[in-house]
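User: quick one
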Amino acid sequence: MAASTVQPDPRTVMPMRENSTNSANESEGSYRHLYVVVEHDDSKPIPVTLEMLGEARRLMDIFNARYSSNEKVVAVVLGINIKKLCEELVYYGADAVICVENPNLRYPINLIDTKVISQVARDKVCVSKVSPEYREEFKKPRYMFFSADNIGRHLSATVLAELESGLASDINKLVIEDLEIKHEHKTKGQLVKYEKTLEMYRPDFSGFLWTTILCLDNRNPVIQREYHPQACSIIPGVFAPLQRDPARTGIIVDFSPELDQADKAVKVLNRQVTKSPVDFDSHKAIISFGRGIKDSPEDNMKLILELANELNAEIGVSLPISKKPYSVREPVSSLYMNSDRVIGTSGRKVAPAVYVAIGVSGAMQHIAGMKESGFVIAINADENSPIKDECDIFIRGRMEEVLPILIEELKKQKQVMEVHK
Amino acid sequence: MEIAELMASPLNLAVIVKLEPDFSEGSVSYNSDGTLNRAETKSILGPHSAIASAAAFYAKVKYGAVISVATMGPPIADTALQQAQLVSDADSLHLYSDRIFSGADTLATAEVLKTGIKKMEVTGKMDIVFSGHRASDGETGQTGPQTAWKLGHTFLGNVISYDVDIEKRILTAKRLITLQGTPDVIEEIEAPLPVFITVDPSYRSVFNTVSLRLASVKYQKEAEQRAQNYKNYLKTFNAQQLEVDPKFVGLPGSPTIVYKVERIPKARASRSAEVIHGSDQQQLRRVAEKINEIVGRVVNP
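Assistant: Done. Structure below.
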């Protein structure tokens, strides 16, 4: 799978910046605008929605200035009672909002939402209201953003399967560039210029590598195919939203979807708020651990649990730990080495008063999940670990040696405290 | 598997699985820069694929479902099928293996899997297809839903439990929905078959009656025997046998390419750390005091 490849495939990619380009072969005449698929909670936008709009606005401002065009940031909203939300989206950067209000859209249902969003993406009438000048040539959006969460991750996949185009997931950096590409299949080995290409940067699971994914038309004469929109899902908490500005203006377009009777048989029966057994929000301290426990996982886990118990702290882990890399007895293994406890872009974002990172190297993905903590203490044997730049106190040493002393000190001080009560 | 057997089954299930790097100690190998050393790392049935197999096994125990497991990959991916058979007591194993499939992105992978599952459908649509939440190496989580869409199955993600009304042919499922900035929600949803399920990592099968527990033990024993002779259950298909259009699979069928891979540049230090030596008890006492002060265990000697 392209999105999971770690090494670049030497057959496929050769970026070049020379002027020996083949004919530009511009087939981009049919694709316009950046569509942002909005997620909201009972008509309140969730944070990633505003973050996507912020990044979309910044990208399209640069785009329009550079290419002397007038392409829009178009938000797409599905739901009931969403008129007010549509206005808000304009204040946060949308030029246009396509508002799909329908009683069947009260809760996200993948089947129905996929059909509706695909209809919107192909609709010329909406576009003629958003930008009459592009009405004739419009086929599909040029770019599309979804959020990389439980709803958007699946929705992006099914919408792009329907629109038959490419998708990159979990993106945390975006750039629009004109690229010259030489590719065995895409260009039949010829150097071809691809204008207005969205470079989608995706951190890999280790958190140390960045893979740039492109969605490119096949310009190979043998297998010509157009692949638009260029789409991605965006990691929540990465991009900055714009300041809300009620002076900003935009157009709101109503859209009536066509729903099959059969699709309505998929029904939400009940929804209940649940509390995760892992509670990162109400504890003042969080203790997280990473692959540094590897020398004696069983004993180190004991020490970590003892420290957490002493501080009434919740326990978090780095992503690799959720894959249960070490054999530790049950139920400790199931309780602590699981994805519910992952802190970082593939898990939760936390901000406790004290964050203690034990044997965590500090991959970018992890840092993104803990950087807003109050006071950060790292325990690590390797002073070159990136975590050193993200903590207030760096304790250099093996956890096997440091933790017993630290726990002993905490206990002593508690006794002193109790004597004085 | 005979057609008569399929006709008799109240429920026909498919599970799509993936061979993935084994991240467990002793199997995984990291390069000195913290990235995965793929050449040195062993491969196994992905952990989420194993959970999907367990979810299918639940329907075998409860409804007597017939199960087919499928994967796309190199010939050695048959070990993933064997491990999935051990978990699910699968009745047949399908390996889609051809050089032209390699380099596929999620859309081109979904095309192969869809074609394979269609080939299994001798008596009408496959009732339920299961896949894992996401692969532990690629982690896109896209292949499942894209296969679902191409098959025309209703897609349900993050399923934590499910049951089927065989008479009415309706599935009810509970799904876990976690969104940034909102409380977690457990949603109960119903959908007519056919359905495609991706299983949440927190999925657990519950066999809550004596007869279900007995049936589960019986099928587990059968699974162990079958997995020992898994090759008897294995069918391998190349592109031609699968009758896929080469334009829609592998590199030619992939809209996306990997343009470049680079090390993520080190961010500017956001804090400046005081470095303490780990064996310095005096210093660690100060750290303990600092922690106590912040979390409110105020010490007043």
